[in-house]
UniProtKB/TrEMBL annotation:
<dbReference type="GO" id="GO:0046306">
    <property type="term" value="P:alkanesulfonate catabolic process"/>
</dbReference>
<dbReference type="GO" id="GO:0008726">
    <property type="term" value="F:alkanesulfonate monooxygenase activity"/>
</dbReference>
<protein>
    <submittedName>
        <fullName>Alkanesulfonate monooxygenase</fullName>
    </submittedName>
</protein>
<dbReference type="InterPro" id="IPR050172">
    <property type="entry name" value="SsuD_RutA_monooxygenase"/>
</dbReference>
<dbReference type="InterPro" id="IPR036661">
    <property type="entry name" value="Luciferase-like_sf"/>
</dbReference>
<keyword id="KW-0503">Monooxygenase</keyword>
<keyword id="KW-0560">Oxidoreductase</keyword>
Length: 101
């Protein structure tokens, strides 16, 4: 991820946005690969729907702080995805993934 931003904020935080709503700055605060979907509930749902349109069916999601972001996603993004008919109605699997149809 450092290759995307060189480890610095020369262009500011917005300079790390590599696609609308896709932020590469996560690598500045923790190691390893990672990008962040950023925006409102609707905007994040739009990005997930865009990925779904490309054939991506499962996501590994994380946030900071973890518990608060889990609630933010569950209370806002998940209902938006359900309204769009993108959520699998099957029970959540033990590994706690959310699959899209």
């Amino acid at each position: 991820m450092v290759a995307l931003h060189g480890g610095a904020l020369a262009k500011g935080v917005r300079g790390l946005e590599i696609h609308p709503g896709l932020w590469a700055g996560v690598g500045l605060v923790r190691g390893g690969a990672g990008t962040a979907l950023v925006g409102s509930h609707r905007e994040v749902a739009d990005l997930i729907e865009e990925y779904h349109g490309l054939g991506i069916e499962e996501f590994v999601l994380s946030g900071y702080p973890h518990l608060e972001e889990a609630y933010w996603f569950g209370e806002g993004v998940r209902p938006e995805l359900a309204r769009r008919g993108l959520l699998d109605r099957a029970p959540v699997r033990p590994e706690r993934t959310v699959a899209v149809r």
